[in-house]
Structure formats: structure tokens, C-alpha cells
Write a structure and sequence with these properties.
single chain; about 90 residues; 2 domains; 3 helices
């Protein structure tokens, strides 16, 4: 789920109420809500903490280059038992 509040509707508690209610419904159904928050957005992070979310760790966004383009550019082959992977960049 992506949360976004239009600028003219911000600071009214709508998004907080919506996320809090959704978390309550999930909990009542035996599910644990998880949230991936942007650390660069302190306003939303403050709201999430007020709702009850706690930081449990960090994630990494891993993107792979197109393997087939990489393989053809480098003349690589995939012989039996040999596994070649493209470059990996952590963002």
C-alpha cells in the first residue's frame, strides 16, 4: 500500500487515521502490519512512530542489469555447472 495525502488535505490526521485503522484490522485478523518507510521523510516517519510502528531494520534495494545484454557484451557463456551473474549495485 502506498500512502499519499494531497497537500491541501495534510495536517488533518486523515492518513494517520487510515493507516492506524488498517493496522487494527490486520491485527484483528492475525496479521502483522509491516511498513517500509522512506528515511528521508521525517514527517511520515513521525506519524508512523505515533501510530506504533518501531524500526526493526533496514532494507537494500538491489537491481540487476539485464543478464542477456551483459552476457553478450562480455562474450560469456553458461556452460554446465557454470553460473554467471551480472553486476549487482546496492542503492
Amino acid at each position: 500500500m502506498l500512502t499519499f495525502t494531497s497537500p491541501f488535505l495534510r495536517k488533518k490526521g486523515y492518513a494517520s487515521a487510515l493507516v492506524a485503522e488498517l493496522c487494527l484490522i490486520l491485527g484483528q485478523n492475525g496479521l502483522v502490519p509491516k511498513l517500509y518507510a522512506d528515511l528521508k521523510n521525517p514527517d511520515s516517519n513521525k506519524i508512523y512512530k505515533n501510530i506504533g510502528f518501531v524500526e526493526a531494520g533496514k532494507i537494500a534495494d538491489i537491481r540487476f542489469h539485464d543478464y542477456y545484454k551483459w552476457r553478450s557484451k562480455h562474450g560469456a557463456s553458461t556452460q554446465m555447472g557454470q553460473r554467471l551473474l551480472p553486476n549487482v549495485h546496492l542503492l
